[in-house]
Structure formats: structure tokens, C-alpha cells
Amino acid sequence: MSISKWIGASIGWSFGGPIGAIVGLAIGSVVDAMTSGKNSPLLGQGQQQRSRRRTRRPQQRQTYRSRAQQQRAQTQSGDFEVSLLILASIVIKADGKQDQRELDFVRNQFTKMYGKERANNAFRLFKNITKQNISTRQVCLQIKEMMDHSSRLQLMHFLFGIAKSDDHVAESEIKQIYTISGYLGISNKDFESIKAMFYNSKENAYKILEIPKTATDDDVKRAYRKMAKKYHPDKVAHLGKEHQEGAEEKFREVQKAYETIQKERGF
């Protein structure tokens, strides 16, 4: 596969803007070690329809900003994957070190979602991304403009998973994820809800449902229905089955929170 088709199949809408620059530099480093014709696409493997659509000449492309509204509802697995790699690199470096458990978490999650071969290729790119100085604001603003809200919530869930993977969530990591959430247009309630999914506490059950402890039983039931709808796996169906399975983790946490309050209140 030619390098132009490889890139087209790999990074979709993120071909432009600050993300495109970051990935382009990382790909350049990876390509130096490639053997021509023996490597599969790094990301977005199998998305033939999208690669054909994106292998037009550069001068025929619209800028990523002019396509934002059109693409927001069309975010695909490869676009999500690239965004995830970049944001993961930012969080991992937040505490001034790269813990092997965090790196293993990223690799294992990618293997679970995409399979071993694609995960290995993605991790090669990831290691080159972690060596770069990245503007969190610029990257997040591009993601916010191009990616739908449900997919951005899925990104946040993954980032908290990274922070928790070494069994200690550093304050610097929490601050970094909070900064990312703000740039991504994630509300404080959504941030606290997802954060609470990674801690065991009765109070966190209320935070997950985004309600105060003083909420009535009817308020609790309404909140559960609202959150179950927000985090339903079908919300990220456009990203592919691998991400629906990941979204089920958030959905189960919502159910668990509701059941905890049910048991506590006896209704």
C-alpha cells in the first residue's frame, strides 16, 4: 500500500490541523523503520470506503474546519483512535514520568478493542507521539470541533482508566484530565460523573447520576433514565463494535450506581 493511501486510511479528518501535524511527524519516524509493502495500515484498518474517499489530491481537500459540522456526526474508529493516542500521551506525562503500568494499560486496551496486530502498529505510533511537545489546547479544540459529544465522553472514560491503571491517581493527572475536559467542551457534571466511576463510594453513586444526595426518589429514577440514555452503547455505534463494548463499561457503572441508591433507600 502506498504511503498516501496508508495515511488516508489511517487518520481521516485528523489529516489536517494540529493533530495532522503531530501524527505526520510520528508517522515519519515510523516510516523510517518500515519495509516497503510488508506493513498493513497503521490505523483505521479495513475502512476501504473511507480511504478511497480521502485519497484525493491535497489541493482538492477542504480544510478540517470547513468540514467540521459535516464530520462531527461521522466520526469513525480511526479518527477516535488517533485522538485517543494523543490525549493518552498527554495524561501519561502529566505526573512527569511514564509508568510502565500506564503504557501497558494503553497497549492492552488497544489490543482488546482492535486486535493484536493493529494495536501493535498503533503503539509504535504512540511511542513517537509521546516524544513530542503537544499543545493540549490546540489538539482538544480540533477534537471538540470535529467529534460528537458521546465520543468525547468515551475519550474521557479512557483517560481516567489510564490515570487509575497504576493504582494511584496523581493530582497532576486529575488536573490534566480536567483541563482536557474543559477544552473538549465536557461539562463539570459529566467530568465528575465519569471520575466517580473509578472510585468506590456511596456518595459517588450520586455523582455518577449527576444528582445531589438530597434528591427525591423520583429525581433518582429520572436521573437514572437520563444517564442510561446518555451512556447507552448505541450512542457510539458509529465508532464500531469495539467502542460499543467499551461504552458498556460506563453503562454498567450507571446501573450499579442506581442499584446502590435503590438498596440504600429501599425503593
From TrEMBL:
It comes from the Bacteria. Residues 204-266 form the J domain. CDD domains: DnaJ, terB_like_DjlA. Keywords: Chaperone, Membrane, Transmembrane, Transmembrane helix. The keyword Membrane applies. Residues 38-75 are annotated as: Disordered. InterPro entries: DjlA_N, DnaJ_domain, Hsp70_co-chaperone_J-domain, J_dom_sf, TerB-like. SMART domains: DnaJ. The chain crosses the membrane at residues 6-31. The keyword Membrane applies. Residues 50-59 have a biased composition (Basic residues). Residues 60-75 have a biased composition (Low complexity). This is TerB family tellurite resistance protein.
